[in-house]
Amino acid sequence: MSNLEDLYREVILDHYRSPRNKGELPPPATCTEGANPLCGDEIKIFLDVADGTVRDVRFSGHGCSISQASASMMTAIVKGKPLADVRAVAKRFKQLMTIEEDDGNTPTDIRLGDIEALQGVVKYPVRIKCAVLGWNTLLEGLNSTSS
Ligand code: ZN
């Protein structure tokens, strides 16, 4: 018997065991660090932004399966995307994690793909910080590079 929760667990474990875009990028790519001391998660996001598009993104760090899998999913979905889309996806994800309210301005056609597997995390409020760590670090990086 397989159900949705089993499927979600599989997707999360797959990203945890075989992280996408794991590694570093040399300068001029930016490096932004984030940490979730409550859990011991640490993440570094490397960003190569040009012409308003995320040309390349990598992450490194260590921590629980949720934080690492979420960062892996994040890099997979934002790579190659225009910054406006990246911000929209980040916002949509935070709404999914219930830490940002739906103000009605978020396009509803945003596809979250694998990231939807994290919605079960909402049941465990202490893990929400793990799930959004990579995203918050990414947004911080974008804010410091946006020109
Ligand atoms: Zn964690």
Give the beta-strand count.
3
Mean pLDDT metric: 91
Shape: globular
The side-by-side strand order for the widest beta sheet comes to 1-2-3
| Helix/sheet category | alpha+beta
Major β-sheet, in short?
Answer: 3 strands, antiparallel
Which ligands occur here? zinc ion
Fold and architecture overview:
The protein is of the alpha+beta class and 147 residues long. The protein has a single domain, classed as Sufe protein. Chain: A (Alpha-Beta Complex). Helix content is 43%, strand content 18%. The chain has a 3-stranded antiparallel sheet. A hairpin with a 4-residue loop joins β1 and β2. The chain is globular. It starts with a helix and ends with a helix. The mean pLDDT is 91. The site of zinc ion (ZN) has 8 residues, from α2.
Ordered list of secondary-structure elements with their pairings:
Blueprint: H1 4-17, E1 30-36, E2 41-50, E3 53-62, H2 65-78, H3 83-96, H4 125-145
Helix pairs in contact: 1-2, 2-4, 3-4
List key phrases describing it:
alpha+beta; 4 helices; globular; 147 residues; three-stranded antiparallel beta sheet; Sufe protein. Chain: A; binds zinc ion; 3 strands
Please outline what is shown here.
This protein has one domain (3-144): Sufe protein. Chain: A (Alpha-Beta Complex), CATH 3.90.1010. The chain is built from 4 helices and 3 strands; from the N terminus they run αβββααα.
